Amino acid sequence: xxxxxxxxxxxxxxxxxxxxxxxxxxxxxxxxxxxxxxxxxxxxxxxxxxxxxxxxxxxxxxxxxxxxxxxxxxxxxxxxxxxxxxxxxxxxxxxxxxxxxxxxxxxxxxxxxxxxxxxxxxxxxxxxxxxxxxxxxx
Amino acid sequence: xxxxxxxxxxxxxxxxxxxxxxxxxxxxxxxxxxxxxxxxxxxxxxxxxxxxxxxxxxxxxxxxxxxxxxxxxxxxxxxxxxxxxxxxxxxxxxxxxxxxxxxxxxxxxxxxxxxxxxxxxxxxxxxxxxxxxxxxxxxxxxxxxxxxxxxxxxxxxxxxxxxxxxxxxxxxxxxxxxxxxxxxxxxxxxxxxxxxxxxxxxxxxxxxx
Lengths: 138, 209
Description:
The structure holds 2 protein chains of 2 kinds.
Chain A: E1 7-8, E2 33-37, E3 41-44, H1 45-59, E4 64-67, E5 73-77, E6 90-98, E7 103-108, H2 112-123, E8 130-134
Antiparallel strand pairs in A: 2-7, 2-8, 3-6, 4-7, 5-6
Chain B: E1 3-9, H1 15-23, E2 26-33, E3 36-44, H2 45-53, E4 58-63, E5 67-76, E6 83-91, E7 97-106, H3 110-113, E8 117-120, E9 124-129, E10 138-141, E11 150-152, E12 164-165, E13 172-177, H4 188-191, E14 196-197, H5 202-207
Parallel strand pairs in B: 1-4, 2-6, 7-10
Antiparallel strand pairs in B: 1-3, 2-3, 4-5, 5-6, 7-9, 8-13, 9-12, 11-13
């Protein structure tokens, strides 16, 4: 099952604009390698789950996968063949708002070669361009 | 090993002037410490990057500034490609300074062969040492790390002469745990169809129309 918040203050949110780069969540913290978004966008809960499943087989036996984003934005849609107006649509899916530079996933306990293969497979599922990053010493 | 960096005094300060400096291949820096006034400097980006490539902590300054300094803080852009700013702290050869040193593991853990995942919990530690003996990196020998075991800061063996560990000796640096794989997402949040909405003003607000 896909991720979603437990409790929310409002069921629907405005669309908003993605401006600037990520100033938080842009470093590899938990694992040794990370997948960093190079461009901004919305990543739906289903996509995050698809990425997790894609990466699962590479970390099952030896490593650990960390998901660094959470879908906290509800995205609404109007049903097909509906006339315009009559208010905002109903929540359709949940999405994570990703700014350029956000680290999406991290892995620990696997080799760099395995991490590259894992993230290459995972990157195909992502709606934004991504790159592999290593944990940097301060 | 300490490298020498040519420093130029910076008259114009602020983000616009700094941006122009970076376009010229310079990096804005500030030198402070020893209860003297802070001085705005600019350093050659290529020289600085060479020093950072071998994880240098102490640098010698020449030109408009002199003496030894510690690279106290570095500011990078979002993608860790461009160096935005450097903080330099004045030091004397005789004094002892507090620095953060990166930590690396050495060897292959026995626990990894036993099916465990070796994870670095902390990748840097704080030490107090004279500037001359600040190591570029500290190593932790993990060859005898078994599955379920952990290693703490007190087990670092290559601490240089005269250096004192400031990080708590009991701090776990590396551990070997059974593989967790990918996180399971079938928690209570995933089980419910839609999230609970927090009512704004209690019952009245809920019904009030």
